[in-house]
TrEMBL record:
It comes from the Eukaryota. Its EC number is 2.1.1.6. Belongs to the class I-like SAM-binding methyltransferase superfamily. Cation-dependent O-methyltransferase family. It is an enzyme of class 2 (transferase). Pfam families: Methyltransf_3. This is catechol O-methyltransferase. It catalyses: a catechol + S-adenosyl-L-methionine = a guaiacol + S-adenosyl-L-homocysteine + H(+). The chain crosses the membrane at residues 20-39. Catalyzes the O-methylation, and thereby the inactivation, of catecholamine neurotransmitters and catechol hormones. Required for auditory function. Component of the cochlear hair cell's mechanotransduction (MET) machinery. Involved in the assembly of the asymmetric tip-link MET complex. Required for transportation of TMC1 and TMC2 proteins into the mechanically sensitive stereocilia of the hair cells. The function in MET is independent of the enzymatic activity. It is found in: Endoplasmic reticulum. It comes from Ceratotherium simum simum. Its main location: endoplasmic reticulum. Coiled coil: none annotated. Keywords: Catecholamine metabolism, Endoplasmic reticulum, Hearing, Membrane, Methyltransferase, Neurotransmitter degradation, S-adenosyl-L-methionine, Transferase, Transmembrane, Transmembrane helix.
Length: 279
C-alpha cells in the first residue's frame, strides 16, 4: 500500500464536472447585465471601435497615420488657399471615412464666436493636432494678430504644418512650435517674443491642463481679462483643472456643453475661463 489515499467521487461531484455544469448558468446570469451595459454604453463602444480597433488596422494596412491619410484626402478634395473649404473637407472625412477626433463644427462655432467677441491680438494654442482648430483661430484673428500653436508629436506637427500652409497662412501669422508644453511655455517670452496671450486654447491632454495653466500664471503670460478655453473637460474630463479654476478665485468660469463630433450622445464641454489677475 502506498502513502496516498485515493477517494472516488461521483461524476456529478467531480470539480471539473461542477465547473463544466456551472459555467453556462453563470453566463446566463450575467447576460442581462452585459446586454444592459452594451445598450447603455453603446456610443462609447462605437467610439472605442473607431478610435482604437479600426484605426490601428488601417494604420497597419496603409503604413500611414490617420492624420496623414486625412491630409492626403484634403489634398485631393479641398481648395488650396481656402481655409473654410479645407475645414469642411476634414469634417466630411471624419464623418464619412474615418473618425478624426478633431474639434468639429459644433465646438468650432463656439471658438469662432469667442474669437470674434474677444478679438485677441495674440493667441496661444496648446495641442495643434491636425491643425483644425488652428485654422479656425487663424481665420478669426484680427488684422495684425498672431497665433503660436504648440504640438508635442513631431509626426502630427508635420501634417499640421502642411495643412496650415496649404490654407494660406504664413509663419508670421501662424507659428508652429514642436515640443512639450511644459518645456515651451517657459521659453515663450524670451525665444518666441510672446509677452502675453490674450486667448489660450488648451486642446492637448486634459491631465496636463492644470499644470500648464499654472505655468502660464507663473510666467505672467496671462494679462487681466485674458480668456482660457479648455476642450474635453467633460470627456475624457479634467476635474482637477475645473476644481482649481473655480476655487482659486482668479477666474470667472463658464461651461459650454457640447457633444463629441460624430458622437453627439457622448457629452463633452468647453470650459471658458476669464482671468481676473493674480489677485
Amino acid at each position: 500500500m502506498t502513502g496516498k489515499w485515493w477517494v472516488s467521487l461521483p461524476a456529478s461531484l467531480h470539480p471539473r464536472a461542477q465547473v463544466g455544469t456551472m459555467s453556462p448558468a453563470i453566463a446566463l446570469a450575467f447576460l442581462p447585465l452585459v446586454v444592459t451595459l452594451l445598450v447603455r454604453y453603446r456610443h462609447y463602444f462605437r467610439l472605442l471601435v473607431h478610435t482604437v480597433l479600426l484605426r490601428s488596422l488601417r494604420d497597419c494596412l496603409s503604413g500611414l497615420w490617420i492624420e496623414e491619410r486625412a491630409f492626403s484626402y484634403v489634398l485631393t478634395h479641398a481648395l488650396p488657399g481656402d481655409p473654410g473649404h479645407i475645414l469642411t473637407t476634414l469634417d466630411h472625412w471624419s464623418s464619412h471615412c474615418e473618425y478624426l477626433s478633431h474639434m468639429g463644427p459644433a465646438k468650432g462655432q463656439i471658438l469662432t464666436r469667442l474669437m470674434g467677441e474677444k478679438a485677441p491680438a495674440c493667441v496661444l494654442e496648446l495641442g495643434t493636432y491636425c491643425g483644425y482648430s488652428t485654422l479656425l483661430i487663424a481665420c478669426a484673428l484680427p488684422p495684425g494678430g498672431r497665433l503660436l500653436t504648440v504640438e508635442r508629436d513631431p509626426r502630427t506637427a508635420a501634417v499640421a504644418e502642411k495643412l496650415i500652409r496649404l490654407a494660406g497662412f504664413d509663419e508670421r501669422m501662424v507659428e508652429l512650435i514642436v515640443g512639450s508644453s511644459e518645456e515651451v511655455i517657459p521659453r515663450l517670452r524670451t525665444q518666441y517674443q510672446l509677452s502675453r496671450a490674450d486667448l489660450v486654447l488648451l486642446a492637448h491632454r486634459p491631465r496636463r491642463y492644470l499644470r500648464d495653466l499654472q505655468l502660464l500664471e507663473a510666467h505672467t503670460l496671462l494679462p487681466a481679462g485674458a480668456t482660457v478655453l479648455a476642450d474635453h473637460v467633460l470627456f475624457p474630463g479634467a476635474p482637477r483643472f475645473l476644481q482649481y479654476a473655480k476655487s482659486c478665485g482668479r477666474y470667472r468660469c463658464r461651461l459650454h456643453h457640447t457633444g463629441l463630433p460624430d458622437f453627439p450622445a457622448i457629452k463633452d464641454g468647453i470650459a471658458q475661463l476669464t482671468y481676473a489677475g493674480p489677485g
